[in-house]
Design a protein that fits this description.
128 residues; four-stranded antiparallel sheet
Length: 128
């Protein structure tokens, strides 16, 4: 069973940087894709970034390109999201997700349908 635990969120100021982590304590070799989504107050959960566990193809939402970097550490079974130049609109709860189905389409990897397991989320609050 995949168990995802996010960490690294907090209260920060605009312009600061954060690195979110997602530890998969129950990871199996069947996990093929991992991603980050976020849900801002009053809004639906939205795609942020995704990565294929093997091969490392990465995908980003247009709104975060150039500021967010997704990466993984295979040896530690950990997914990361480096966030630079934080903005107030980045305030949200950030969720880690893992998928066990091979997805050939990068577009499909940007949807929740590509993921089978979700963490509880970590809150990021950006003040001006």
């Amino acid at each position: 069973q995949v168990q995802l635990v996010e960490s690294g969120g907090g209260l920060v100021q605009a312009g600061d940087s954060l690195r979110l982590s997602c530890a998969d304590s129950g990871r199996s070799s069947e996990t093929l894709n991992m991603g980050w989504f976020r849900q801002a107050p009053g809004k639906e959960r939205a795609f942020v970034a995704a990565i294929r566990w093997s091969g490392g193809d990465m995908y980003y939402a247009d709104s975060v390109k150039g500021r967010f970097t997704i990466s993984r550490d295979n040896a530690k079974n950990t997914l990361y999201l480096q966030i630079n130049s934080l903005r107030r609109e980045d305030t949200a709860k950030y969720y880690c997700a893992a998928g066990r189905t091979w997805v050939s389409s990068g577009t499909y990897m940007m949807t929740e349908l590509a993921y089978d397991f979700w963490g509880q989320g970590t809150q990021v609050t950006v003040s001006s």
